[in-house]
Amino acid sequence: MSHAEKVPALADGRPEFSITYTAGVPGDVVWVAHLYGYALAGMSAGDSSTSIRFVRDDSPPARRRAAYMWNPQADPSFAPPFSWRTDTPFGFNPPGWHPAVRISGMTPQDAKDVQMLAGLTRASRFSVLAIVLIFGGGLAWALLKSTDNWEWKTALALGLCALFVALRTFGYRTSHRAAAARAQKKWGPGG
Predict the structure, then answer these.
(1) What pTM, to 2 d.p., does this model score?
(2) Domain that includes residue 96, residue range
């Protein structure tokens, strides 16, 4: 069972729920939770897993969308925010719908934005630690090994290079932050 298939069981009207996973960011989880009337409340990264937390969105569009997902025949005037097909084995089959129905997933741009949001969550946890360890390790090495002036200069240069590499490796550019902000705006409360 995929992570997205677990969402409808958790999106049963409770105030909030979370899903923990170990590999990648299943963007479809965010999308399916959105369809069932839940908003992305936050992500937290652990050593080997990431957790996504959702809160119930009580706005009228979110409640109408959720009601449609549970019973599409109840509101025939509602235009769903997705397309659905019956001739493909791929996609998400909502519980209670005909078994042959598959609904399309989020757009590639939305999936990339969710990936950036998760990447920033993970980077914010590891970047400070990496910078401190690399820079501190270089200076500690310099203190232990230094007897001449040139060794201090070399150690400082190596420490600054390590700091630069850590910032480039673990830091995220402004475009990543903009993509994460788009994801938070679209999939967060009121989105």
Answers:
(1) 0.66
(2) 3-106
Quote the number of domains for the chain. Answer: 2
Q: What is the DSSP string of 89-150?
A: S-SB--TTS-TT-EE----HHHHHHHHHHHHHHHHHHHHHHHHHHHHHHHHHHHHHH--SHH
pLDDT in tens, 118-143: 666 555 555 556 666 666 676 666 66
pLDDT, tens digit, for every residue of 32-42?
888 899 988 87
Q: Degrees (nearest 5) of the Cα angle 154, 159, 163?
A: 150
- Whether the predicted pLDDT of 48 surpasses 80: no
Same domain, 57 and 76: yes
Q: Which two tokens stand for residue 110?
A: 């939305």
Same domain, 101 and 10: yes
Output the pLDDT for position 175. 59
Q: Using an 8 Å Cβ cutoff, are 97 and 85 in contact?
A: no
Beta-carbon-side half-sphere exposure of residue 70 (alpha carbons within 13 Å):
15
For residue 43, count other CB atoms closer than 10 A to its CB.
Answer: 22
Query: Across-strand partners of 17?
Result: 54
Read off φ and ψ for residue 163, nearest 5 degrees.
Answer: -65, -45
